[in-house]
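Tokens help. Our protein:
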Amino acid sequence: MTMQEEKHNIEDEEQEIDLLELAGKIWDARKTILKWGLIGAVAGIVIAFSIPKEYTTTIKLAPEATDGSKVSGMSGLAAMAGINLGSSQGADAVYPQLYPDVVNSVPFTVSLFDVPVTVSKDDDKTVTVRQFLEEDTSAPWWSAVMSLPGKAIGGVLSLFTSEEEAEGDGAVNTFQLTKGEQAIVEAINARVSADVDTKTSVITLSATMQDPMVSAMLADTVALRLQEYVTNYRTEKARQDLAYAQKLNDEAKAEYYKVQKQLADYIDRNQGIVLRSGQTERTRLENEVSLAYSLYNQTATQLQAAKAKVQQTTPVYTVVQPATVPLRASKPSKMLILVGCVFLAVVAACAWVLFLKDFRLPKKEDAEVK
């Protein structure tokens, strides 16, 4: 046996002795570790039951494919790699991958402030989303304790702020939100989310609230508002063309009726006249009526085409999973909190026994002796 092998054997034996020694310390302090674990279990129970219940409603939408004629054979290979080329091609700038940004935008979130919802836990009381978040949403008891310094500072600062500045004019200005409005926007963004599957373009919308009925109604409203937003965007150009075509058609119709009446009045006034000038005037009026009718007919055709274009560009969404009132709370996970607190307490107890229990600072007498 070489010297190097003997050295390795000695190190292995020392490592085994160290591990056995650590295990022995833990075993000797098992009662202390058990006490810490029980304390962690009690803390976990207190924390788990102090956190309010949250209910989550999920809706899944499947939008129709856009610009399918422009998708080449490479889109199939891209889909296998998790990339959807079909949704991003063409002139549509708001494709499904941007829907989460639309849902979390300030104008979209502010539009949810006044949505009426029914609080099932409060005798089916009807309030707005903003009122529910401000008045009917609770927080753990430690949040109130931790917010005391901020409230104290805010109370002092309010003495130097005028009442008009603190309350505002009552209207929500999306360009400049107040602190209270910004807090509501952040609360809604934290509770409402949108996710898009890049392979299938399926849109998953979810709303989490402390009341199951409020959660379901808010999720359903978010889905409807998102569909309206995308529909208005994609049909905006077509609706502008439709309005212009309607205007041209109305003008052509009025002009046609005008010259037609002029021709009828001329014929009524000039019955039996065989003068050449009279015949020429009648021919001119008949030509104007013919031209006006032709223009009216063309604008009517364009108007029908514009109406069809609006219908063609209107997106269609298939509701894969509709909104339903959740029966079970999604948060908090009491078992997970309990296990986590017990684990942390046991780890802390082991660290105390192994590393901190025998550690002590040098006393003053020891320093003087040295």
Remarks:
- The beta strands are 55-63, 116-119, 125-128, 192-196, 203-209, 317-321.
